3-oxoacyl-[acyl-carrier-protein] reductase
Amino acid sequence: MSDSRAVLITGGSKGIGRAMAEAFRDAGYRVAATYRSGGVPDGVLGVVCDITDQAQVDAAFETVEKELGPVEVLVANAGVTKDTLLMRMSDDDWQQVIDTNLTGTFRVVRRASRPMMRARFGRIILLSSVVGLMGNPGQINYSSSKAALVGMARSLTRELGVRGITCNVIAPGFIDTDMTAVLGEDVITEYTRRIPAGRLGHVDDVTGAALFLAGEHAGYISGAVIPVDGGLGMGH
């Protein structure tokens, strides 16, 4: 049952990550969330952690394991953007995004998988993006990092599936958060026109998919990419 599961969500201070923490908490899970600033929702164990630092990742897991027990559900949500066109993109713009979105996710997945293997149970959910599948001008670093998560999930599925561990990817489209609000009204209007559903997504659309993948009815789903984008990407 969900109330016996410990969940760790990375990047739980705002946006989709914060909504994830609230949704899992309200569903009866024991929830911890990492953050770098801003704090986490009430009823959630907050752990300060920069996932680009292996020592901080290890310390965060030790704290969660002490307070809640071994992490059984991991939602790897933490990510950053450094958007600019290719010819203007610096090595640092590239590296910061890859270090957080891809390498940071690798670090938390690797650390979470050890106790999951011992328990022969685990649910790993990686937050990608529709632009990881479709591409987007000005986001070569971000889309590359998010596309790579698909390969990570599928390789992990082949390695650890026999241990009762699933790893799936959620690829949100344009979700109504602070991150999309800064795009400007013209950009939002254009994307709304292109989205078959005719609207931006809500964080509940994404958390609903995560709750399903973490739950009892998704044990035979692994290596899948679940688009939550109103039909924008059509799974591609």
